[in-house]
Amino acid sequence: MIKFLKTSSTWAMSIITVVFTFIPETIFERYKLLQNFSDEVNVTLNRVWIFIIIFVLSILFNAIYLSCRRSINIKGKNYCIKIEYGDLFEMSDCKKVIPFDECFTTSVGDSPSDIKPTSICGQYLERNPILDMQGLIDNAQLKPSKSKSKCQNKKRYDSGKLVPNGDYLLMSFAKLDKDGLGIFFSHDEFLDCLSTLWKEIDKYYGQKDVCISILGSGTTRIDSGLLTQQELIDIIIESYKLSSHKIKFPCRLHIVCKKCDGFSLNKIGENI
Hints:
Layout: H1 2-22, H2 25-30, H3 39-68, E1 71-76, E2 79-85, E3 94-101, H4 120-127, H5 133-139, E4 162-165, E5 168-176, E6 182-184, H6 187-204, E7 209-212, E8 221-222, H7 229-242, E9 253-257
Parallel strand pairs: 2-9, 3-5, 3-7, 6-8, 7-9
Antiparallel strand pairs: 1-2, 4-5, 5-6
């Protein structure tokens, strides 16, 4: 709210400065709200009323703008992050990151160890069935981790590593517990995953924009809990800012969001 009022006040003061600079004093003298008072009093009163009207209109227009906007840009030294509402699969002329689990599971279903059909990964697999995931992994020369997954002792890959497949970058994301459910066992593991991801994107983006979803906003648990979409996006943005591996401008990192209760572009940065 304080940020909103500051922005509205800045707009109002800018407009008022222009109005009071270029509108002659005689205009304010023409309209006498108090007939029995001097011109100086009426001019002052007119100026106060104009200030109030412009300030109220600035608040109104700022509120409309914030409620209607669908994207924001965060710019830094030689990089740009665009956070926007949309559908990851509808994004064009870009690389799209698809989060898999640490074992690159490709079976879609309802059992605990299956990829959920409604997840980003599940939607991708239904649109683009993968018949030879191991072949893609081998082509990327991605080596498995020395340790095994807690799920059935399967071969696993370090979180954040990417396997290119056309315009898609398939990511080893969540670790698996013994039941096959996605989890990061600590916040540090999640941050390490993001750090690795930025390095991998730097290697594979190929002078194109890169689009990601709000990683971890599905069923993946972090430290035995679930973070909100609002909390996650702040963590992702801050991690990217601090990384030395960034997509070079004019290419951009896009974070594609879904509208949902409790999430707003206008609240980005409040959890830092």
